[in-house]
Write a structure and sequence with these properties.
This protein is α/β, with parallel strands linked by helices. The protein has three helices and five strands; from the N terminus they run E-E-H-E-H-E-H-E. A five-stranded mixed sheet has the order 1-2-5-3-4, with helices on one face.
Length: 120
């Protein structure tokens, strides 16, 4: 039986009262990964690579100013085509410190992409 993997894009807009400027955050779950192995850090499948490229095209005119990702291969690979298109470096975030990360995003005007997992 094949497993169906969902790829979700959610748009949230937050207005920063400290700066009076808006921050837009695109939240992405990583694209389709290869089958699980002995390690939890698995890369994207071919379909996942294609999906990551499609997301980069979809967000080509979104004005992305920062890209954030966990350290896993699948999230880094999902972010890579978008980072290349915008000539940005993917900034790591710690999924075990989401409160601190959310605070940082609230204070950082611009358009951010956050690539994570279903629980982050």
């Amino acid at each position: 039986m094949r497993r169906l993997t969902c790829f979700v894009i959610v748009l949230c807009a937050v207005t920063l009262s400290a700066y009076g400027q808006a921050t837009t955050v695109y939240l992405l779950r990583h694209a389709e990964k290869t089958e699980a192995t002995m390690t939890r850090d698995v890369p994207l499948s071919d379909a996942g690579q294609a999906r990551a490229a499609a997301v980069a095209k979809l967000l080509a005119s979104a004005g992305i100013t920062a890209i954030h990702s966990t350290a896993y291969q699948r999230t880094q690979q999902t972010a890579a085509p978008l980072a290349e298109a915008y000539r940005l470096t993917v900034q790591p975030y710690d999924p075990s410190a989401l409160g601190d990360f959310a605070d940082m995003l609230r204070e950082a005007p611009g358009t951010h992409v956050v690539v994570g997992h279903s629980n982050t």
